[in-house]
Specification:
19 strands, homodimer, alpha+beta, 37% helix, six-stranded mixed beta sheet, 11 helices, 367 residues, three-stranded antiparallel beta sheet
Chain lengths: 367, 367
């Protein structure tokens, strides 16, 4: 059984549990996960008696190459609604069909619902949320291996660029050098727009690398990820470029301690909100709670941000096979920022860190 | 008045026409177009008496820098629903609010609708489609200048890479070289994953560049775009690498003629379906109609694919200020493919082509 066949079998169990005869899978990472399809326009219908991908003529050849043999491929016009509705109606003449309500637009959902009703008024269409994402939460060995490869690429690229030196170069030049390295070592791409943010720009967690030249005695936040075999990695290091103002040095120290404590707390059974709390309480106790304005982390896989959400609002509990980031940050407007992020796979008794780039020691930051 | 203030004024007119007091703008390119916000998580509420962007704490600093002074910025938690609903309820205590149904997921739409009803049962929430896209159809001079810059970048990058020679290099290496050039000359990025597809791979309109080495006597489809100031360009050239098999040479010739005819037909007042027909009839008359499986083109702007749709199903009519691609293709499975694409801005009396890379002459392809 191929990996995606096993995933479809698990989805069928989940569908049965949800009282559904079929699911219209419109979120592309979910389509890829379940069928192998890699492209920009497809919908899958997976159910009791159906395994089908509907895509358009641009993908006639590649879809046939990519998609599991057990999955039928229909080529429709660019707007897939018609063929999709026919596929649904054909398989569930009086059944219940779920739409991926978290990913399907209101307009498209209404269109599909109307078409299905036209073709077969006996079919009930209902909203379904998180069915495939629930499966994707737990990565299999093949997926973890891909994520680990993507994490290794980031380690390699960052080491090369730091080795060449970053002081005196613009943020944009450093980001470009990182990206070029990633491609050179075989990444399919960066998994998001690389962040290089020095000095005051570091106070913007999602800064866009600009013309600012990196100076001495500042913190430089470098956040990057790679894609390998469709899977993402994500890592942040904050580089002190020399002796720091006391407030920045302290922020670095507090962030590093919080990150280490949260990493050490990763294990099956801990709640995502509790894990966020491990880091947040340390940062808050240091009087910097307000400067940590985002969640501790997020799942990583076919998407750079996926379940589980590791934050105060997180409701999941860690289980073996989950892959999450641990990335507390402290942002001091006008002065600078620090974020330290590792990618961790939850194991049977703890966590295995997939990102191996060295971290600046706290003492080196405070020198 | 800034460009985005003028756009918001035009949106207010459109809202009045649609009987709406406010629009919840959730599609990020629309948020950028109307407010200046550039980031990954924001919703704007624009209406009779409101100009507001709701984003999260990662963008506290950058949103304030980017967004028009007249637009208020609220920082909410990562899930913006709560703050958003409050903004809507505050401005339209008994009015009609539109949601961007083409871009808002069913689940999020239901959530927002429920929150608004909780806060203010007097507000009517309704689906709205294409209001901002309708404005974006017609580009202003500043937008056209950005698209032209992005088109120039593609011309420059392609010329450099072709100059270095492509025979004997892998598709992936050529794509990587193109991308590197784009960044070197200041592109914010490629506007989509660059396509380099030689030999039989050219028969896949959206092929992913692979390890296949480009040989002599084949057609190589190179489709790439750049981003400049947030605006996209898009261009395809098909390169004959030497004398071609007769079927391929003929496909090239037919495609080139169809493309030239369609380019010449670009003018205000022509229907998008009729324009598609100009190319399609020529290709069909040559017996290759079935090998042209996609539409003739699409609008380009903040998004690489936007309105109008230039296809058999296209319902728009060209107007001055629209920017569209003209890109017929002929795909012969197992043998190869050809696509020739230019980017054209519709002027008062015709079209101005923004992409200037030379095209292989038909005679050179048939040598």
């Amino acid at each position: 059984m191929t990996a995606s066949a096993a995933r479809r079998a698990r989805l069928r169990e989940a569908l049965e549990g949800a009282g559904l005869d079929a699911l219209v899978v419109s979120h592309l990472p979910n389509v890829r996960y379940l069928t192998g399809y890699v492209g920009s326009n497809a919908v899958a219908v997976i159910g009791r008696a159906v395994d089908r991908v509907v895509t358009d003529a641009r993908y006639t050849v590649s879809a046939r190459e990519q998609v599991d043999d057990e999955v039928a491929v229909t080529i429709g016009p660019g707007d897939l609604t018609g063929d999709l509705a026919a596929a649904v109606a054909a398989i569930a003449p009086s059944g219940r069909v779920g739409l991926e309500a978290a990913h399907l637009s209101m307009a498209r959902g209404a269109q599909i619902t109307a078409r299905i009703a036209e073709l077969d008024p006996g079919v009930t269409v209902t909203s379904a949320v998180g069915l495939v994402e629930g499966l994707r939460l737990i990565k299999d060995d093949q997926e973890i291996a891909a994520i680990a490869r993507a994490a290794d690429m980031v380690d390699t690229a960052l080491a090369a660029v730091l080795e060449a030196g970053i002081v005196g170069r613009s943020e944009r030049a450093v980001a470009f050098a990182l990206q070029t390295r990633l491609f050179e070592i075989g990444a399919e791409g960066p998994s998001f727009e690389i962040i290089v943010a020095g000095g005051p720009n570091g106070a913007k967690p999602h800064a866009v690398p600009g013309p600012r030249v990196i100076g001495e005695g500042e913190l430089v936040v470098i956040d990057l990820g790679a894609i390998a075999d469709g899977y993402c990695s994500d890592m942040t290091r904050t580089i002190p470029t020399g002796p720091l103002p006391a407030r920045l040095a302290r922020a670095y120290e507090v962030c590093a301690q919080a990150q280490a404590a949260a990493l050490a707390a990763v294990r099956p059974g801990i709640g995502c909100a509790a894990l966020d709390g491990v880091a947040r309480e340390l940062i808050t106790a240091a009087g910097l709670g307000k400067a940590f304005g985002h969640g501790l982390g997020h799942g990583v896989g076919l998407e750079i941000h996926e379940a589980p959400r590791v934050a105060r609002e997180g409701t999941d509990t860690l289980r073996p096979g989950m892959v999450v980031t641990i990335e507390p940050g402290i942002y001091l407007e006008g002065l600078g920022g620090v974020r330290i992020e590792d990618l961790v796979v939850v194991t049977d008794d703890g966590g295995r860190v997939l990102s191996h780039s060295p971290k600046a020691s706290i003492s080196s930051a405070t020198v």
